[in-house]
Amino acid sequence: xxxxxxxxxxxxxxxxxxxxxxxxxxxxxxxxxxxxxxxxxxxxxxxxxxxxxxxxxxxxxxxxxxxxxxxxxxxxxxxxxxxxxxxxxxxxxxxxxxxxxxxxxxxxxxxxxxxxxxxxxxxxxxxxxxxxxxxxxxxxxxxxxxxxxxxxxxxxxxxxxxxxxxxxxxxxxxxxxxxxxxxxxxxxxxxxxxxxxxxxxxxxxxxxxxxxxxxxxxxxxxxxxxxxxxxxxxxxxxxxxxxxxxxxxxxxxxxxxxxxxxxxxxxxxxxxxxxxxxxxxxxxxxxxxxxxxxxxxxxxxxxxxxxxxxxxxxxxxxxxxxxxxxxxxxxxxxxxxxxxxxxxxxxxxxxxxxxxxxxxxxxxxxxxxxxxxxxxxxxxxxxxxxxxxxxxxxxxxxxxxxxxxxxxxxxxxxxxxxxxxxxxxxxxxxxxxxxxxxxxxxxxxxxxxxxxxxxxxxxxxxxxxxxxxxxxxxxxxxxxxxxxxxxxxxxxxxxxxxxxxxxxxxxxxxxxxxxxxxxxxxxxxxxxxxxxxxxxxxxxxxxxxxxxxxxxxxxxxxxxxxxxxxxxxxxxxxxxxxxxxxxxxxxxxxxxxxxxxxxxxxxxxxxxxxxxxxxxxxxxxxxxxxxxxxxxxxxxxxxxxxxxxxxxxx
Length: 650
Prior knowledge:
The chain is 32% helix and 11% strand.
């Protein structure tokens, strides 16, 4: 590959394949101006307070209410055909480029274009795993996006994203999805390269330091923490419960949302107001979180799972089995409605808070400070915060008032609780956000499951997330009609190498009960860089960030086809599989070959494997990693947190 990774003003040459993500160009003033605009333009912030604090508003004429989870929402139902129809032309172009020998993809799409439901319905799911998941997932999305430089060349898969209906993220993958949508569906290339003065995706300064002070977000570290503290304090003074998730979500926003102070007025529901979303030009995003009962530490596989989408927040599980309008989730719902004497509340779904909710496990960043060189007084700061909510609740997001209070009393575990407690969506081991995509009402045919989990001793995935979702689908008390392909145990993943290359699960729909999607499992693996960085590493310089994104790009494309020139064809076959079955179309010979190559054939090898330490698939590149916490930086942390401590503890 001949490729270039931008690192500030220079580049590192990558040898071994034929293409790369985002080749830096000789940037004319016109190009620089266009790219700056592309990153700056966003959906308008719509919190009624103009900041982080939710505020009361007049309810709309049709007052918000809680609905049963027995169908898609009216809003999604109306949006879906718009999006499905908008995917037809991109899908035809993509399938044609994937070049299935002996199959006329354009003719097939044209034959059924007046019945979009006959055509493939695609979902992409980006797993959790901190910044590792954000960057590895970003590589996959960059490869799938036809706006990425060179992504439509031979051996590339650009255009898959444009043909996709749904895009889900969880925890670190949720940061990726949330950041892309909070920045007007910007490309990975644009977010990575940024615009002048932007701190977005600049991970060299960890959230303990705040953004660099050489751009539009001109904040010293002290000002940074005081800003966050003031915003969270304002929310508390307005009568809303707060937790470490508020601080965590606000800190993340400085890195993920390209707006002054990390866009405190940006809400997740505002995505629904963006023209590109309303017009069906982009997929629907989901973030996922788990419910955890107060004063408990364990999140089991039968815990209730919640999804956030621009229209609604709620759960399909037969426990809660209800949805609330995302825009108004801070309102005082009781038995499914807001009392007529009360006004609505808007702005509770602040984008950073929703992203923080899906990644509350990362409050451990703030709780593991004993192992860093951060000054000891920080323990006092967060100990005071934790005292108010109890040590067992240190990693929760508090949704008070509970939108589902008094609703579905017979099954809803929190029907009599004024607080709904949510935690990281991967705490039940379902670290790939498949939950929204396997709901029968959505009829998703194929899911690209990008797994950046740290399951093994050396932070590589071993299929645990797929195993968990499969096991949950077999639990009659919680599965609620969801079907999922058979998945082998984790030892089989390692022993058969299913965790080091793409694998298809559920290839033969006739052998399954229920409307299960085909799963294209895409595990993180070392192609050019050891992207198995720790979930809790808080900082990455631009060089390492770019290398991990490039590695994820190579994972998605199998090294731009270097390892298998037929990989793009096989991806297309996976996309078409369920559609071919529905339309009674014979499976092309090329696809039969692909399915023989990539489908799990049912073989099990459950013996305990040796230590999993994969070798590079392509030529390794050498980059300098971020140094993380250093004693030399302690003075800056002291100065920054001193102001924050004064405010938070006053």
